Amino acid sequence: MKKLIKNGTIVTATDTFEAEILIENGKIVAMGHQLDPVGAEVIDAKGCYIFPGGIDPHTHLEMPFGGTVSKDDFETGTIAAAFGGTTTVIDFCLTNKGEPLKKAINTWHAKSKDKAVIDYSFHLMIAEMNDDVLNELPKVIDEEGITSFKVFMAYKNVFQADDETLFRTLVAAKELGALVMVHAENGDVIDYLTKKALTEGKTDPIYHALTRPPEVEGEATGRAAELTGLAQSQLYVVHVSCAEAVEKITQARNRGFDVWGETCPQYLVLDQSYLEKPNFEGAKYVWSPPLREKWHQDVLWNALKNGQLQTLGSDQCSFDFKGQKELGRGDFTKIPNGGPFIEDRVSVLFSEGVKKGRITINQFVDIMSTRIAKLFGLFPKKGTIAVGADADLVIFDPNVERTISAATHHMAVDYNAFEGLKVTGEPVSVLCRGEFVVRDKQFVGKLGYGKYLKRAKYGQLLKEDVKQTT
Ligand code: URP
Ligand code: ZN
Ligand code: ZN
Description:
- The protein is an alpha/beta fold.
- It has a domain at 53-375: TIM Barrel (Alpha-Beta Barrel).
- It has helices at residues 76-83, 101-112, 131-144, 163-176, 187-199, 206-210, 214-231, 243-254, 265-269, 295-306, 345-354, 361-375; strands spanning 2-6, 9-11, 16-18, 20-24, 27-32, 40-44, 49-52, 54-59, 64-65, 68-69, 86-93, 119-125, 148-152, 179-183, 234-237, 258-263, 311-312, 393-403, 422-432, 435-439, 442-443.
- Strands 8-11-12-13-14-15-16-17 form an eight-stranded parallel beta sheet. Strands 3-2-7-18-19-20-21 form a seven-stranded mixed beta sheet.
- The chain is globular.
- The mean pLDDT is 97.
- The structure holds N-(aminocarbonyl)-beta-alanine and zinc ion (ZN) (2 copies).
- The site of one zinc ion (ZN) has 5 residues, from loops.
């Protein structure tokens, strides 16, 4: 059925204007004034903004990690994402050394199919670059539409790849038209520092932060950027947390390197002191890179404002406090790394960013949706409000005041990292391809409605003739 959204203020990455939006067959088919409402359900968005659906480029749903599995899966995770104003997630598909990439991709399809309530896609981890992997990559791009590869420079003996793998991945990505993503921390140095801390009896959660200082992130970021320049390739640095990493990205960009940076809401509003909470509660704030001293927040906000960083991912990788984070009592290295952020990503950026005058409302849309769509081959199908685009829309009340809490969130975990944070603004209704997933703050979506998205190559537009599968 057709839908006509009236009386809202449309906000894109470039413009803010009043117009009606006509939706048919999941697409925006017209925008303008006094559009013909015949045969359409009319939706009143008075007093609300209409944003393109948020795109979360960084999630770990149902991911095996740290001796357990992240709690939110493609069902609870995408429901929570939708409540938060996100209509597409790109999740990290983990691979194992020596196994076909296809096997890992099939595992991720099995996890997500019939569960996701919004659209989704995958990035592919490169654990080790060798001839088998190299031979499989063209198929991964052509058949799966996976056009971004992830290399971990940390988590020694778990995910960490060596510099040869990083460099060969950069070279291959340049040739094939993919974007390389890095978790940039020096895993070897962290390994040394964590072992030393444990032998000195330093076992509390705060030592997670103290053994992964900003310098190890800055060093790895600079190394990855330098290798990108050498390979004349393209790089996206995930979860940038500190001034040292921002500086390396800025230097690389100033040298003309194709380097991009993502930060996350947790680094914008929380700081290292949270890891010192008593009764082991600091474990709730253990993720990597760790939270930093508070002054880094200003650097990150400024970097978003002036374009040194371009996107906001959630790095959703949630674990219960009870039974999961508790695995690390007496040894901080055993605390599963990660936190629950998928639901609050958009609201925190709006409230702390737009409402507090740190970024403009059009920058907000760019950072949480449009730029991500462009970098990851989803634009212009996703990431904007335009005729021909998917009707992925967020009807957002910019004035409602509320307090973030685990008591009201939709994620499956037993705590919220932003507990008690007062925010202004909330998604009222969220549509994915023209269908309500959230309507008047109630979930009305369907499990399995979310479609797997094949993405265009780096720098290319996603054309409609790219065959999408359900
Ligand atoms: O601590 C984190 N960030 N967990 C998820 C995996 C990763 O490094 O992104
Ligand atoms: Zn990471
Ligand atoms: Zn991550």
